[in-house]
Design goal:
This is Sulfatase N-terminal domain-containing protein. It is built from 10 helices and 9 strands. The chain is α/β, with parallel strands linked by helices and 286 residues long.
Amino acid sequence: DKNIHIENRDNDVVVGLENKTPLRDIYYIILDGYASSKTLKEVYEYDNSEFTDYLTKEGFFIASKSQSNYATTFLSLASSLNMEYINYLSSMIGVESKNRDVPYQMIRDSKVMKFLKSKGYKFINFSSGWGPTNYNRYADLNIRSGKLNELFMILIQTTILKPIVSYILGDTLRERVLGAFSKLGELYKINEPKFVFAHINCPHPPYVFDANGDLVPETKLLMHGSVWKQKELYLNQLIFVNKKVKTLVKEILLKSEIVLASAAVSIHLEKKYELFWDCILLILSG
């Protein structure tokens, strides 16, 4: 049987498929701002082994010593979704350039997506509320939960309307996260091979969940800066995310014959913090 493969820009074979192999569903789930076990223990004084042991027991491989090639989400995603280092962008758009158009387009119209679509996959994108992953015109289906995006939320935070809309914003952010987890568990109903991409901005702040998933009272809906120092709020939100991931894995395991793998991409949220998980990759059979 003839092999099918995909190459990166250096012509290295990075993915191989045989045409006799059944197409398996692929779920690429980014849990943005998820700290590594090392960072959780050293910075937050929290032992996350119960969660990682659960994933290992269910067949996942935890890349515990992985480190990010890039310091921000948009560069990490542009790299992983095209399976290549993207340092060459410096010479294309300039070392000092702050223009994100090229990496954003690489995320939307990625080599991974184009390769999988050419082999018969349907591409499903979950709205994140952020930049290039909020909506993808190349997707066969965009699934939306929350109604507001990151830019609108930032603008509202700088106006006199802030006290009035804080509750509404918090509810919308919760709706997007809860909706994503809920709808991810229902995609087995689509009886076609599918590549599912879900960038979930959680446990990344703002903090809108306590450990049980209830709304955090009077929380400041901040996304950057000193908000990362609110360790208790961050940990409670992470603990809730752990619960949702475990529930999602159980749902998918019950409904599909599974081949599981995982990959971690780390990001630096602050210089003193070393490893931060940025994604979990699930490979599921159709």
